[in-house]
């Protein structure tokens, strides 16, 4: 579940906007899903022309997310997950991965696309899971949301997941401050799982690819390794640190002809 919580129809947060592509629905299209519209499909196809490796990239990002969830649950002992920018459901979802290891894990999903909330009906009878319609760029509203508070106890360790979402927050919207507000709300023993698109890998065509999102509900902002690393603040990075998502504790070797993936991923722990 990775997509976005930056952007959207602020005037009518419960209205699905089909006039512009939405990154969550484009991501769904990249994954081969059907919860998208023609406007999303056109934009996604345009992006794939500029970045042919994107489908492999989103799959690699998703597999990173699965490995990171297994780490924070199995090795970190976390039993609460706040997944901001969850996107459209694609199995296995975060709660399914986590509960395969610890059935008592509680999960709060947050996204700003109403179509995501519409899919939450399947979870309506699950008291340990909630789906909240909110925007990453207003982190305080997420932390104070009654549905989030009903599932997440911020006095106990939490795994905060910001997977492929912060790159949809513009510099003028203070992505570092947004992430810091969420980080600072977490108690000792919590984790931050974050992935972020970068232009470091494909510098020759990064501007053309990012420009596809200029007409979407949220634009794409590629950032270098140092800027992404700074988003973790003073949290302690888990080995191997901030690396390309394909290199974060891979469980199988990539094929020799696989294209390099321009997404960094990392996991860090709050020790003090």
UniProtKB/TrEMBL annotation:
The protein's name is: SAM-dependent methyltransferase
Q: Name one GO molecular function term.
A: methyltransferase activity
Q: Which InterPro entries match?
A: SAM-dependent_MTases_sf, SAM_dep_MeTrfase_SAV2177_type
Q: Which domain of life is it from?
A: Bacteria
Pfam families, from UniProt? Methyltransf_19 (PF04672)
Stretch list, region Disordered = 1-23, 251-272
Instruction: Give the GO terms filed under biological process for this record.
Output: methylation
Ordered alphabetically, the record's keywords are:
Methyltransferase, Transferase
State the organism named in the record.
Streptomyces ardesiacus
Q: Does the keyword Metal-binding apply?
A: no
């Amino acid at each position: 579940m990775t997509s976005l919580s930056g952007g959207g129809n602020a005037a009518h947060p419960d209205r699905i906007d089909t006039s512009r592509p939405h990154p969550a629905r484009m991501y769904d299209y990249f994954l081969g899903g059907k919860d998208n519209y023609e406007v999303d499909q056109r934009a996604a196809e345009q992006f794939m022309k500029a970045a042919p490796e994107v489908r492999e990239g989103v799959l690699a990002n998703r597999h990173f997310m699965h490995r990171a969830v297994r780490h924070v649950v199995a090795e970190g002992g976390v039993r609460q997950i706040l997944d901001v920018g969850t996107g459209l459901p694609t199995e296995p979802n975060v709660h399914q991965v986590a509960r395969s290891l610890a059935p008592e894990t509680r999960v709060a999903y947050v996204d700003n696309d109403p179509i995501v909330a519409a899919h939450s009906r399947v979870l309506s009878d699950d008291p340990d899971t909630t789906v909240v319609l909110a925007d990453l760029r207003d982190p305080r509203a997420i932390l104070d949301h009654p549905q989030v508070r009903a599932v997440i106890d911020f006095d106990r360790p939490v795994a905060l997941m910001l997977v492929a979402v912060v790159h949809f927050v513009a510099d003028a919207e203070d992505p570092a401050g947004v992430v810091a507000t969420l980080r600072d709300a977490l108690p000792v023993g919590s984790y931050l799982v974050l992935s972020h698109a970068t232009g470091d890998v494909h510098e020759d065509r990064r501007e053309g690819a990012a420009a596809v999102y200029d007409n979407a509900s949220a634009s794409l902002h590629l950032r270098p390794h140092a800027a992404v690393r700074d988003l973790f603040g003073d949290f302690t990075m888990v080995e191997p640190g901030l690396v390309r998502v394909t290199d974060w504790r891979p469980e199988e070797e990539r094929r020799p002809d696989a294209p390099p993936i321009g997404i960094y991923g990392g996991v860090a722990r709050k020790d003090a």
